[in-house]
Write a structure and sequence with these properties.
single chain, 10 helices, Thermophilic metalloprotease-like, five-stranded parallel β-sheet
């Protein structure tokens, strides 16, 4: 018997997030999720008179393919996947994981090959389709969140079916303020950073691409970042867990990078993937009221109330500084008092202190 929350979530994804139209071709990319949820998405798609297509994936099979990947194999796969994506008007990716570190032992050069080969597919999906991506709750996620399975499922569906429309006035005000600003300063424990965002657009994120959502992002002028930043949220990248990341910048480039637990060499290996990996491709301010603690899942962690993230690697075309890289790694710092506090300044004016917005037009984004 299907959980009625599946139907509710499927309706959010097809109605609000991707706004499917009659005859839209929709790729439902189901990754280690219950059949009942895939079926709910098919039915919700058909209810909008759109046309569903389905791809089923599993983590262990994907790992096996990547572990022994070859250029010839993934060259053909890239052509096939790109051809299919070009025939779609929309994409809904629901990504579960029985083991978040499934890919951790795949050799670095194989992961680099896979990411490079599939980049044209992802680029087309982001630029040319109505898309939405979300995680699926699992025991592994519940453990990382420190919750029982039942508690985590309740949390998950509460967050993912949030009335994102209520955030729109505050997000619009933050977007406007960012686009009228030049210098941004970030201050906090281990952080004293400054950069320019002059002339770069800002983008509101209120449930139309990622679920859960709740952020407004922009991008630093590529060579403007100066200073030091420390991230107090744990993160995972390509199956490896990182803690205590600290980056130093000169003229926009990461000139020194450190990580706790002996992972500094691994961190620098990733940042040396290509020239753009040591420059920043995104700066985002987050405010989802239901997400309070990190759980090494970036689609949740990057939306934590009172946090921001700073992203080595690829810039988005919507807020572009020209930086290009196969890397896009959102690193999160939480500025609420329980995480040490911190401030964000726009052109010398204090905009957010200890995770709370101060200007009247932004206070609706504060956690009630």
């Amino acid at each position: 018997m299907s959980d009625p929350r599946y139907d509710q979530l499927a309706k959010v994804l097809t109605d609000f997030s991707t706004k499917l139209l009659p005859a839209d071709r929709v790729l439902i990319d189901a990754y280690d999720i219950p059949e009942a949820m895939t079926i709910a998405l098919i039915r919700a798609t058909r209810a909008r008179k759109a046309v569903p297509f389905v791809q089923l994936n599993t983590g262990r099979v994907s790992r096996e393919l990547a572990y022994h990947a070859t250029d010839a194999q993934y060259g053909v796969l890239s052509e096939i996947e790109l051809s299919r994506m070009q025939k779609m008007q929309a994409y809904i990716g629901v990504r579960g994981s029985h083991n978040i570190t499934e890919m951790s032992d795949v050799p670095g050069d194989r992961m680099k090959l896979v990411m490079k080969a599939l980049r044209p597919v992802n680029d087309h999906r982001v630029r040319k389709t109505k898309w939405c991506v979300l995680r699926w709750p699992s025991s592994a996620m519940a453990q990382l969140a420190g919750l029982s399975s039942e508690q985590f499922e309740d949390f998950y569906f509460r967050v993912c079916t949030l009335d994102y429309a209520k955030m729109e006035p505050g997000m619009a005000a933050l977007k406007d303020l960012l686009e009228r600003s030049d210098k941004i300063q970030l201050k906090g424990p281990g952080t004293d950073l400054e950069f320019s965002i002059k002339g770069i657009k800002s983008v509101t994120c209120g449930g139309d691409h990622n679920i859960p959502d709740g952020e407004v992002f922009t991008c630093p002028v590529r060579d403007s970042v100066e200073g030091t930043i420390s991230f107090n949220a744990p993160t995972i990248y390509l199956g490896t867990n990182f803690d205590g990341i600290r980056l130093e910048f000169e003229k926009g480039k990461v000139v020194n990078a450190e990580a706790a637990g002996g992972l500094t060499p691994k961190l620098n290996e990733i940042l040396d993937s290509d020239e753009g990996a040591r420059y920043i491709g995104e700066f985002s301010i987050a405010f989802n009221p239901h997400i309070l603690q990190p759980m090494r899942d970036i689609l949740f962690d990057e939306k934590i109330a009172g946090s921001f993230h700073f992203t080595p690697g690829q810039a988005y075309e919507e807020a572009d500084n020209g930086n290009r890289s196969q890397v896009h790694w959102d690193m999160v710092s939480i500025q609420r008092p329980d995480y040490g506090g911190g401030e964000i300044y726009f052109d010398g004016k204090l905009i957010r202190k200890n995770g709370e917005f101060l200007p009247k037009q932004l206070r609706s984004l504060n956690r009630k």
